[in-house]
Amino acid sequence: MSAPPAPTSSPAGPARLPAPDWRLRFAALSLIWGFSFLLIKVGTDGYAPFQVTLGRLLSGTAVLAVAMAVKRERLPRTARTWGHLAVAAFFLNALPFSLFAYAELTIPSTLAGICNATSPLWGMALSLVALSEDRPTRRRVAGLGLGFLGVLTVLGAWQGFSGLDFTGTAMALLASLSYPVGWIYVRRTLAGGGSSTLALTGSQLFLGTVQLAVVTPLFTSAPAGFPLLPTLAVVALGALGTGLAVLLQYGLVTEVGPTTAQMVTYFIPVIATAAGVTVLGEQLSWNTPVGALVVLAGAALTQSRPRTPRPATPPEPAPVRRRLSRSSGA
């Protein structure tokens, strides 16, 4: 994606304030997504997991609706696009958000954040099957193996996974698998559709909210009250961790490109671990940070691409340069 041309301000209207440096927005996005797992844990102290996810999607949709209204974005018009967005909303929002909320009922937020870092590993494995243009290389295959070795280190495989809640961990890993499934589906069905990224994302969050609004009453009862801290955590999770975070990521991709913007993935488990240990007092054994570093190293290898050498261009003959200079006035 290329950055749009900078608008020229008219003398009659006020000049627009320049956006903060992209590095500051990158750091803010890392902090917001890193603290999301702590907010999920706090939210589930007062609400059922489906209620946490519904509140998250509702708050996030409200933020994007305001952004779309300010920018006068148009909603997708075809039923086909809305159908594809409904599938994307399930795999990218409704399913993983709910799975992480259920997982954190029994596992610490630090482990949930580290499981989230396996998403690039799942994505690389799936893309080799679903996307013909993604060719395996020795480096990427080595990164895949290294990453899953890090997962086994985090889970303490040599101890027989003792002290580990299998169901909660499996839910967190399944949530991280759901993201690349959704990304691949979007890439195959919605790429080049004509609508803006902001309009598609806002519509996708709206459909995810509708899906949770239908499911939540079937599996939960109305909350007896609205405890202050869990309520603030759910609102912040949606408004910041879903709504504002999407806008920050949208701006980063536009300004510095998707390769640099996706580097935020490697900071999320570090921040999630630090937040869980310092704020929630969660216990941390040596294998958790060591395994997390191995996971991140493997994920980085799976996202690497070999550099293609630029072909050397032969020097232009002197007579041609003279003719061009006379004709162009250079």
Element layout with pairings:
Elements: H1 22-43, H2 49-71, H3 79-103, H4 109-116, H5 119-130, H6 138-155, H7 166-189, H8 197-219, H9 228-256, H10 258-261, H11 268-278, H12 287-303, H13 318-328
Helix pairs in contact: 1-4, 1-9, 1-11, 2-3, 2-8, 2-9, 3-7, 3-8, 4-7, 4-11, 5-6, 5-7, 5-12, 6-12
Record keyword descriptors for this entry.
disordered C terminus; single chain; mainly alpha; 330 residues
Overview of the molecule:
By secondary structure, this protein is an all-alpha fold. 69% of the residues lie in helices and 0% in strands. The chain contains 13 helices and no strands. Helix 2 (49-71) crosses helix 3 and helix 3 (79-103) crosses helix 8. It is globular. The chain starts with 21 loop residues before the first helix and ends with a helix.
Order of helices and strands: HHHHHHHHHHHHH
| Poorly predicted runs | 1-14, 319-330
What's the alpha carbon Rg, rounded to whole Å?
23 Å
Shape: globular
Sheet of most strands: none
The whole-number mean of residue pLDDT values reads 83
Question: Got a strand count?
Answer: 0
Q: Determine the N-to-C terminus distance.
A: 33 Å
- The number of distinct helices, counting runs of at least 4 residues, comes to 13
Query: How much β-strand is present in the residues?
Result: under 5%
